[in-house]
């Protein structure tokens, strides 16, 4: 019986010894050095200037592509629609000045002053749409540039700006504020 306990003890002892593995402990005290490309923002802006949305692809912000194409595409649609309507009312106005009759019943019921007012309205809408196209195009370039510049910005846990709640021991009330901490 004692022999069996000794064998059992040795068996469990050997299994626990073989189950233990030595772990290598490595210290990473050296900070990770990331290479900073100073031309990255310029490349992203150049790509967006060549073709809208290409700078966002370069920055790997694919979710911005529908926003870029949606904004520029919608503005282009309204530009084309306003230009078409402007040409329709302008052609009708010119036909009336030439003494021709209208082919459309709706346009025949409009007066000349209404035709001129409609032309001005659609011309204004067309010009605003063209301004929006240029604005969204420039905004696309600026977004790609800023996003590329901020992607290289060092955001570490050592620097923090967090809200803080401090308990005032004299008045037993909570004080709210912000704390800026930097740890080494």
Question: How is the secondary structure organized here?
Answer:
Elements: H1 2-19, H2 40-50, H3 54-58, H4 65-98, H5 105-108, H6 112-151, E1 159-168, E2 173-182
Antiparallel strand pairs: 1-2
Helix pairs in contact: 2-6, 4-6
Describe the structure.
- It is a single chain.
- The chain has helices at residues 2-19, 40-50, 54-58, 65-98, 105-108, 112-151, and strands spanning 159-168, 173-182.
- With 184 residues, it is mainly alpha-helical.
- The chain has a two-stranded antiparallel sheet with strand order 1-2.
- The longest helix is centred in the C-terminal third of the chain and has 40 residues, at 112-151.
- The model has no long low-confidence stretch (mean pLDDT 83).
Give a nutshell description of this structure.
This protein has 184 residues and is mainly alpha-helical. It is 61% helix and 11% strand.
Largest sheet: 2 strands, antiparallel
Alpha carbon gap, first and last residue:
62 Å
Secondary-structure class: mainly alpha
Radius of gyration: 36 Å
Along the chain, the helix and strand elements come as HHHHHHEE
Q: Pick out the low-confidence regions.
A: none
Can you give the mean pLDDT?
Answer: 83
Percent of residues in helices: 55-70%
Strand content: 5-15%
- Can you count the beta strands? 2
Molecular shape:
elongated
**Number of H/I helices:** 6
